[in-house]
Amino acid sequence: MIEHLLRSLKMTDAIEALPRLEEIEDKHQFVTSLLEAELEGKRLRANKRRLGAAKFPTEKEWHDLDSSLNPKIDFKKIEQIGPAFVQKKENLCLMGQQGTGKTHSLIALGRAFCRQGVSVKFYTACNLVNHLEEAKAEHKLSKAMQNLVKPQLLIIDELGFVPFSENGARLLFDVFASRYEHGSIAVSTNLSFEKWLQIFGTPELTAALIDRFTHRCRIFTFEGKSARLSEAQRRKK
Fold it and tell me: pTM score, two decimals?
């Protein structure tokens, strides 16, 4: 009877848990445990959906990062950024040398947010601009921009690694502008702010973008040894 009712309610995780919970004699505890099993299953499936939708390039986590290689970088403080960050529509900028853990940190933080119920989308800056230029060419730019406003956290990795066309820079500016005070952006870049002119082309566009992005922004400097270079040297030895 109970299983039939659970099937009618499509409570698949509760059905799966039923055999191991039927021995519980206390009715209140039995019902509570059954509902907890269903809720936990829904939570895990939701986490999986959010992680899949984010499109992370790898499954890097905080425990995979060797913070001892560059002790001056405050990885722990970045790891401790919680969901209140996106509720306040704050931004994050990881700025500095290549190979010091910026991308790893963005992925690990984004994955942690997904598990805390936050919607996330990951792009490299190059892929994001290509996506926007293709959408514009196909007359789908409005829809693409709407989709970029939806996630609570938009991650843009490797900003400044590849130069953009004037059109591409303008489209990227529009992404920053559209999310201003609507959603958080987390960026990794190898360029200091005064060098963002190399990305966006004109002083006016660059100044306007930096003004919006840094309005409520946590900035971390990444300086030190390259993890990839250190690993290569270890393998060579």
Answer: 0.88
